[in-house]
Structure formats: C-alpha cells, structure tokens
Amino acid sequence: MQGKYYLIISKNTAQMLIINKALKENEVDTDLVPAPPETGTVCAIAVKIKESDLDRSKRILDENSIDVKDILEEKKFKLQGLLDKKLGNNVITDEFIAILKKIEEGEDLERNEIVYLLSTNNKKEIELIYDAADRIRKLMVGDVVEIRGAIEFSNYCKKCCNYCGINAANSSVGRYRMTEDEIMEVVDYLQGLGLKTVILQSGEDMQWSTERLIALVRRIKEKTGMRITLSVGEKTREEYEALKEAGANNFLLKIESINRNLFNEIHPDDDYDYRLQCSRWLKELGYINGSGNIIGLPGQTNEDIADDILYFKDMGINMIGIGPFIPAKGTKYENHPHGDVNLTLRAVAVTRIVCKKVYIPSTTALASLNKDAQVWALQSGANTIMLINTPDRYKKDYRIYDNKNMVDLEAALYAVEKAGRKLPSYLKVN
Ligand code: 5AD
Known about the structure:
binds 5'-deoxyadenosine; alpha/beta; 41% helix
C-alpha cells in the first residue's frame, strides 16, 4: 500500500473515538495509529485515512459538527544513510543491501526478506538491523519511553495453555483474587505517580464476571480519568462492547503464534479462529488493539515469527508484546529451554521495522532473563515499559513463568536512563 495518508489529530481520546466512529459509519477506511511525536502526548492516538478519503472525511466531520485539532499529511517515510556506516572489511550480502534499500524507502518487505532479517548471523548485518529499528523508533514514536502500571488482579484461570504457569490444571500455584477496593488502592497509587494508563490483567476468571469488570472500569474512570487497558482474555463481542462503553480504552489479547498448528498445540482448549475473531472485534469496536507473540515455543521457526509480524502489520495491531518463552513449573513445557534473548531482540527490531508506528513494550519476560535485556529492547525498537504493581502479598503467585522479574519504578528508571532515553513528562518522580 503506497500513496499518501492523512492523520486526524484530536484534542483528546473521547474525541478521537467520536471521529473514528463517525468515519467508520460512513464507510471510510480508518486506522488508529500513535500520533506523531510533534503533536504532543495529549492525544496519543491519531485517526489515519487515505488521501482519497480526505475531502469526504472532512465533509462528514463538518456535517456532524465534530471538531478536530489538526489534519496533517502523514510524513513520507524516508530514512537515509542506513548504509553510510563504514563497512570496513565486513562483507554484507547483496540480498541484505537490497532489503536495506527497501527499508530506507519505506517499502513493504516480503516474507522471505523478513525471514532473512530474523535469521542472519552476519555481525555487521545484525548491527545494521538494530540501527534501522532504533532510527525508525525515534522517527515514529520519539524518545519518550511510555510507562504503564499493571495490576494482575486475579490468577484464577479456566484455560489450560500449555506454556502458562497459572493455567487451570497447575495445582502448584496459590490462587488469589483481588477485590475491587484492593485494586482501587493500587490505582490511586498509580495516579499519584502521574501515570496515564492502568493495565488490568488476570487469568480468565469467571468470578471476575464482565458485570464486575464493568463496575470496576466505571469506578476507575470516574475517580481518576486514567486510560484503562484490559488484558482479561477471550469474551463475546457484546462483552467487549459493554466494557468499551464503560470506559475501557485498550485491550491486550495476544495471538502468541499465528501458526494454526502451533497455536493449537500450545492452547489445547482454545479455538484459533475465535481468537482471531476477538482481535477483529476489538479493532472494530475502536479499542487500541494489542497483540504479540512468544519467542522460543516448541517447534517454532523463524518463518513462524515472520508470519506473526506480518499478521501484526496486516491487522493494524497498535501494541505488540514480544517476549521469550520461559518455562513454568507444573506445566507441559516445564523442561523446555527458555527462548533466546537475542532472537527476541531481533524480533522486536524487525517488528519495529515492519510495523513502524506502534507501541512495543520492553517486556517483563525479557527482563526476567537478563536485567539489561530491557535496556537492549529499548535500543532495538521498543518504546514502553510496564511496571508490575500487583501488591507484594499476591505477586509471587502471578507466576505465568518462573523467576519473573517484578519490574518496578526503579528498574524502569534504570532502563530508560541506561538506554539514553527520556522519561514521560507526566511521571512524578523525585
Ligand atoms: N513464557 C513467556 N511468556 C508467557 N506468557 C504466559 N506464559 C508465558 C511463559 N511461560 C505471556 C503470554 C501472555 C502474557 C500475559 O504472558 O504471552 O499473553
């Protein structure tokens, strides 16, 4: 897809959603993308439209008396000088040079080219891949590392995912379920820190019914006005819609692997098509849509990872969490080796190169394998960090894998500083 695009910038999230809805209802093809850094962080998301829809969109917004802050032409993507670096005695292949040229021009990469980037062992090529990813990150989402606060509010789960330590069949974990008041206490703390987004994550816990979640979302919204990210698994379209109406903004529901056989192998009680359908609904409903994968699953190939990345791009996924597999005691894969840190970093870099304007967290799973891996991910294309704010008395039991790093504010500050990046202005730390 080449050609010009325009970004409609709104004053706030509510307005952005009204714009998106009005355009969609009139069959304008829209995409929600992070607003360019120069528009500030007030409204992090812009509505992207094609040039051919520009006049019609303006008319629709006008007729419906919907205000916009600005409409900008999306800057033509252009990177220069990726290859200017001294090559010295290093030999790089013609195939690689051709791929780099495509990256410089902002052209879409083919599957075999993505596989090449994931697979090369050539040191210089690897260095150039990281350099390209880091520059695209800077160009697309700037130097600020967004900080989110996560509350893992229940580890009860009805599902039996083979990799996951809190799966229903694992009797070696102590189960807990936070109350609404306990959750609100943490939310207040996060608001005190100045954070703008709270992530509510849990297993698929039937006791935390959609009705209860709706009440919680409303309460957080009314009390704090914070953006709310839900990560509570598969639901019906009606449930997603009701949660959206209650005030949820973002939803994380990872595909884990887009390879149907691999997905089925790791998710004995999930339906591949239903998972994909959920993601489509979330997008249609106007959620900022999160997905992601696990690197190092049994039998996973670089071709599989390339397909994951192409899926994120084609689905217009806005947030992409990429973490290494880490074995969890009491699960089918407890003796399977953990995923490779370098391959995970490479997947982060290639995802940034392919998907461009997206949020990519420097994941907790990476931090769990190496304290500095979170720094490396920030230098390989990642731009957000999720703090774990589950109360101490519970967090050891949110054991989705073993030896989980409890990324706290201190760890995040360390990573941002060491990566030479900026803290968000909303963060209140002294
Ligand atoms: N290793 C790595 N990531 C895991 N997750 C769950 N279990 C594991 C594991 N053993 C990830 C999944 C899920 C997210 C909350 O945690 O990707 O979506």
